[in-house]
């Protein structure tokens, strides 16, 4: 009997433990379900369309709206109450300039004036006091959490907020040196002004060293999207020295790994590469001549540049043909609100620029022109003397010292650049742009040992120019997916003539002409979501190079003409993934066919991983 009783007691204990386990399991499941549901009711940086879908399921209603009006909108923070559709809509739309009408179970979203939610305003007031001293804390900060609503208390610590708020909102009270307090709005509603006590905290400040951040003053920063790209904003520059204090190419030389071996602005050597290994683009137009006064200053008007994107590693597969760097110069795609005009006079040039909005602020025209001045000034002569060190110009000067009062015609140089851009935004999803530019330099140098034609004299004429234009169309299919089409043309011309007339009337002349015609067509598609970016498309490129050399002497007449054309067709694909804030992965490739090569297709894979553990190390 004792054994049977023990079995009976053990059996009852097991049953009790079994019911207790089931109870704990059910309680844990309900708690986990509630937590999961609470997390599902909180949205951070979510699209408005996604939140509308959740509200439809929660309250069994239907939303009607213009997709173009809401598709690009993202809500930083939103907490679904699951209790009141009206209050949720107020909390969701009060800062979006969007309102609603309700017709039964249909909710119609519409654009409303800023004062639409004033009728839903509620008032909260209070007095902020130091908990230890009992003194008012004047000018404390009071804000509605997760909104832009807020204000500052007066000098006596009193505050009053009147905004479209709901009972579940929280007020946050901040004052330097005191603990931050968060209090639910329902604590203030329909109540006299409350007294809020803030507790002081002990603050130990570490040593602070105030120093000048040169990169900020130079308008330089690392791209937030692509850590391999450095962005330069001319409007943020305060000057970097040199002939033109805001020359973007002079600023590029402040970046580690970039230098200029000949002390010019545009002949950049990136990581030991030559200047010819840099791809220079202006609004996607490839440029072969982009320096005035033989590279002393760049051929770009800073007032027409919005930003420069400089990449010296981890190139996108979209770009090919260079191995050192990509210098992507971009003008603005924004429609100005009013007519603007600028004029500048510098040490070497005079420039004007202007922008004109039209078509009800859906289109704009931007133009710019710059021309050299003071071509015979002392500064211009000093620059040319630096450029022609170790050349025939210096030899002629030394030759003149051994003769009696020779006549020496100094080098004469002039330059110009012209820019025009038209942009049209027929809808929120479409942008159409046309860009045209021309930049050029002319140099003339004459030397003679006497004023008459009976003496030795020579003449050099150099003319360099680059003409370019491009047309593009971009369409946003969805907030995170877009496509674009682009045609670009670049024409480079270089002409050099030399004539040498000796005393015995023997004449030597040389003429050299180089021309490059660069045409390209590109289709590009870009998709981006949650730190992942995919870029793919195709390119067709045609480059024609023409060389014409003529040499004419009393004994020899020689002519060389070479005309070559290269066609390239390319498919490209990029995959970028931000692995948190510190690691960035890039995988890409180009599949190209070159008609000048025997191989039908050539694959160019690209791969890089970068890490930014802190702002000083990459």
Describe the structure.
The structure is a single chain. By secondary structure, this protein is an alpha+beta fold. Helices cover 15% and strands 47% of the residues. The protein contains eight helices and 35 strands. Strands 23, 24, 25, 26, 27, 28, 29, 30, 31, 32, 33, 34 and 35 form a 13-stranded antiparallel sheet that branches. Strands 13-14-21-22-17-18 form a six-stranded mixed sheet. A four-stranded antiparallel sheet has the order 8-7-10-11, with no helix packed on it. Strand 4 and strand 5 form a beta hairpin. The longest helix is centred in the N-terminal third of the chain and has 39 residues, at 2-40. It is elongated. The chain starts with a helix and ends in a 7-residue tail after the last strand. Mean pLDDT is 83; it is low at 1-17 and 28-40.
Give a quick precis of the structure:
The chain is α+β, with helices and mostly antiparallel strands and 618 residues long.
Describe the protein's topology:
Layout: H1 2-40, E1 42-47, H2 48-59, E2 62-64, H3 67-70, E3 74-79, H4 85-93, E4 98-103, E5 106-111, E6 122-130, E7 141-144, E8 150-152, E9 158-163, E10 170-174, E11 181-184, E12 194-198, H5 214-217, E13 220-222, E14 229-232, H6 248-252, E15 258-259, E16 269-270, E17 278-282, E18 285-286, E19 291-292, E20 297-298, E21 307-311, E22 325-330, E23 340-345, E24 349-358, E25 363-372, H7 378-387, H8 392-401, E26 407-408, E27 412-424, E28 430-448, E29 457-478, E30 481-501, E31 507-529, E32 532-552, E33 557-579, E34 583-594, E35 602-611
Parallel strand pairs: 2-5, 6-12, 17-22
Antiparallel strand pairs: 1-3, 4-5, 6-9, 7-8, 7-10, 10-11, 13-14, 14-21, 15-16, 17-18, 19-20, 21-22, 23-24, 24-25, 25-27, 26-28, 27-28, 28-29, 29-30, 30-31, 31-32, 32-33, 33-34, 34-35
């Amino acid at each position: 009997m004792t054994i049977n009783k023990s079995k009976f007691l053990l059996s009852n204990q097991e049953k009790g433990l079994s019911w207790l386990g089931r109870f704990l399991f059910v309680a844990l499941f309900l708690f986990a379900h509630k937590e999961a549901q609470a997390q599902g009711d909180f949205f951070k940086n979510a699209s408005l369309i996604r939140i509308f879908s959740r509200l439809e399921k929660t309250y069994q209603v239907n939303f009607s709206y213009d997709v173009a009006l809401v598709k690009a909108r993202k809500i930083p923070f939103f907490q679904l109450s699951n209790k009141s559709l009206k209050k949720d809509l107020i909390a969701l739309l009060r800062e979006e300039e969007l309102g609603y009408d309700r017709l039964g179970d249909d909710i119609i979203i519409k654009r409303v004036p800023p004062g639409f939610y004033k009728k839903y305003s509620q008032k909260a007031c209070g007095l902020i006091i130091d908990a230890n001293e009992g003194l008012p804390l004047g000018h404390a900060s009071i804000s509605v959490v997760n909104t832009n609503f807020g204000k500052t208390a007066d000098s006596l610590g009193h505050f009053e907020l009147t905004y479209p708020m709901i009972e579940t909102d929280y007020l946050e009270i901040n004052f330097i040196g005191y603990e931050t307090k968060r209090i639910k709005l329902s604590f203030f509603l329909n109540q006299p002004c409350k007294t809020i006590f803030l507790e002081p905290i002990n603050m130990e400040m570490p040593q602070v060293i105030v120093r000048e951040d040169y990169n900020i003053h130079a308008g330089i920063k690392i791209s937030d999207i692509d850590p391999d790209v450095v962005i330069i904003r001319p409007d943020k520059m305060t000057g970097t020295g040199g002939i033109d204090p805001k020359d973007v190419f002079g600023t590029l030389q402040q970046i580690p790994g970039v230098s200029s071996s000949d002390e010019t602005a545009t002949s950049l050597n990136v990581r030991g590469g030559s200047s010819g290994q840099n791809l220079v683009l202006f609004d996607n137009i490839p440029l072969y001549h982009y320096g005035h006064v033989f590279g002393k200053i760049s051929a770009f008007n800073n007032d027409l540049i919005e930003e420069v994107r400089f990449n010296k590693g981890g190139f996108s597969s979209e770009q090919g043909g260079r191995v050192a760097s990509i210098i992507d110069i971009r003008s603005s795609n924004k429609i100005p609100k009013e007519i603007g005009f600028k004029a500048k006079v510098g040490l070497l040039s005079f420039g004007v620029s202007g922008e004109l909005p039209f078509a009800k602020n859906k289109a704009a025209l931007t133009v710019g022109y710059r021309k050299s001045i003071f071509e015979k000034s002392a500064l211009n002569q000093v620059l040319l003397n630096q450029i022609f060190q170790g050349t025939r110009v210096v030899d002629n000067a030394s030759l003149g010292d051994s003769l009696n009062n020779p006549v020496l015609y100094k080098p004469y140089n002039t330059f110009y650049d012209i820019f025009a851009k038209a942009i049209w935004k027929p809808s929120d999803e479409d942008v159409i742009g046309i860009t045209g530019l021309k930049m050029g330099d002319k140099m003339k140098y004459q030397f003679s040992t006497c004023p008459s034609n009976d003496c030795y004299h020579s003449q050099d004429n150099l003319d360099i120019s680059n003409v370019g234009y491009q047309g593009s169309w971009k369409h946003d299919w969805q907030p995170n997916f877009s496509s674009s089409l682009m045609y670009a043309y670049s024409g480079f011309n270089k002409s050099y003539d030399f004539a040498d007339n000796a005393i015995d009337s023997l004449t030597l002349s040389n003429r050299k002409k180089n021309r490059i015609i660069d045409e390209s067509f590109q289709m590009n598609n870009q998709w981006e979501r949650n730190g992942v970016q995919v870029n793919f498309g195709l390119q067709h490129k045609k480059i024609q190079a023409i060389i014409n050399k003529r040499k004419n002497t009393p004994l020899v007449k020689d002519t060389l003409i070479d005309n070559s054309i290269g066609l390239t067709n390319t498919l490209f694909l990029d995959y970028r993934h931000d692995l948190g804030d510190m690691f960035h992965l890039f995988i890409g490739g180009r599949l190209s066919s070159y008609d000048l090569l025997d191989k039908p297709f050539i694959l160019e894979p690209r791969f890089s991983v970068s890490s930014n553990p802190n702002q000083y190390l990459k």
